[in-house]
């Protein structure tokens, strides 16, 4: 049986444990989550275990990254189930601070990353990335890991955290991990639990549409054309598209015309009230160069 995981709920407790590991010269990884753990989270943990000798998984359903009218209250919570999964996965510490630990009376600070956060999810969810950046900064300062792992599932979030850590000189390496999918291609997400049977059957179309779009873009179909056709396909099937864009994979600025270099397609779409996101790397096909005569 795997050894019992230790659960730490206070900042001082977490700092004490990290100081002890530092004395032992252990390499430490942090995987921040909001709980309701699924195989997507577990893939991040597996990567953390490969890269470090001690692994902390934080569970904090961060109220400041949910907007007005979003699903903070309904967000799935299952601490007991999560602890069983973390024990099984060989995690050393489950760090589960409560809101009082995170927000002392008089709390007044926000971390805001300009540029990267203004479009896409940032435009549809005002304040979301400030909430994420502020809490991730706190978790990084509390746990002081050598590295922290974030999923490419939240691609805009991953880039935002990398920017923030570089700008604030936080001494941590940020690593991305690929998207884990269900067998039918749907990106794993705690929010998939909200989908009813009909919506769940429809949901993989999001990923299939991105795949088909990647093929068309590689073949030289202009971005505007491929995007409009794909959005129409999703809307016709019953999705409400929030955004569907082909962007530069570093700056997230839109690209247009025929692809000349690698890009990323990002999508957010609603099925009923459930907002799903997904993304995929795209690149132009290497065309055979004409041989010089
Ligand atoms: P969350 O609990 O949804 O805040 O996610 C915690 C971390 O897990 C974030 O870095 C997410 O990007 C990552 N994550 C969530 N779903 C997946 C997935 N399907 N594949 C890979 N990483 C994921």
From TrEMBL:
Q: Name one GO cellular component term.
A: cytosol
Listed GO molecular functions? Answer: ATP binding; pantoate-beta-alanine ligase activity
Which residues are listed for (R)-pantoate binding in this entry? 65, 157
Q: Where does ATP bind?
A: 34-41, 151-154, 188-191
The Enzyme Commission number assigned here is 6.3.2.1
Keyword terms: ATP-binding, Cytoplasm, Ligase, Nucleotide-binding, Pantothenate biosynthesis
- Catalyzed reaction equations: (R)-pantoate + beta-alanine + ATP = (R)-pantothenate + AMP + diphosphate + H(+)
Q: What is any Pfam family matched here?
A: Pantoate_ligase
Residues in the active site? 41
Ligand binding (beta-alanine): 65
The first-level EC class reads ligase
* Cellular compartments annotated: Cytoplasm
GO biological process assignments:
pantothenate biosynthetic process
Q: Which family does it belong to?
A: Belongs to the pantothenate synthetase family.
The entry's other comment says: The reaction proceeds by a bi uni uni bi ping pong mechanism.
Assembly and interaction partners = Homodimer.
Q: What does this protein do?
A: Catalyzes the condensation of pantoate with beta-alanine in an ATP-dependent reaction via a pantoyl-adenylate intermediate.
Provide the protein name: Pantothenate synthetase
The gene that this protein is the product of is panC
């Amino acid at each position: 049986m795997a050894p019992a995981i230790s659960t730490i709920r206070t900042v001082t407790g977490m700092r004490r444990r990290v100081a002890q590991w530092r004395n032992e010269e252990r390499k430490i990884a942090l995987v921040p989550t909001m709980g309701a753990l699924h195989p997507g989270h577990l893939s991040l943990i597996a990567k953390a275990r490969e890269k470090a000798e001690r692994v902390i998984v934080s569970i904090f359903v961060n109220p400041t990254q949910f907007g007005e009218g979003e699903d903070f209250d309904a967000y799935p919570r299952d601490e007991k189930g999560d602890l069983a999964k973390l024990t099984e996965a060989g995690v050393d510490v489950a760090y589960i601070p409560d809101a009082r630990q995170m927000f002392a009376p008089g709390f007044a600070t926000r971390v805001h990353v300009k540029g990267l956060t203004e479009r896409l999810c940032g435009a549809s969810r005002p304040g979301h990335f400030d909430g994420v950046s502020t809490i991730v900064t706190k978790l990084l300062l509390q746990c002081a890991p050598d590295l922290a792992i974030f999923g490419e599932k939240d691609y805009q979030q991953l880039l935002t955290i990398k920017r923030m850590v570089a700008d604030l000189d936080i001494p941590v390496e940020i690593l991305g991990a690929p998207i884990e999918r269900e067998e039918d291609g749907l990106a794993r997400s705690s929010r998939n639990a909200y989908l009813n049977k009909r919506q769940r059957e429809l949901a993989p179309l999001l990923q299939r549409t991105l795949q088909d779009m990647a093929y068309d873009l590689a073949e030289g179909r202009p971005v505007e054309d491929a995007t409009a056709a794909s959005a129409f396909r999703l809307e016709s099937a019953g999705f409400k598209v929030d955004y569907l864009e082909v962007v530069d994979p570093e700056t997230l600025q839109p690209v247009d015309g025929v692809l000349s270099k690698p890009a990323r397609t990002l999508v957010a779409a609603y099925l009923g009230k459930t907002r799903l996101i997904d993304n995929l790397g795209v690149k132009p096909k290497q065309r055979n160069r004409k041989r010089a005569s």
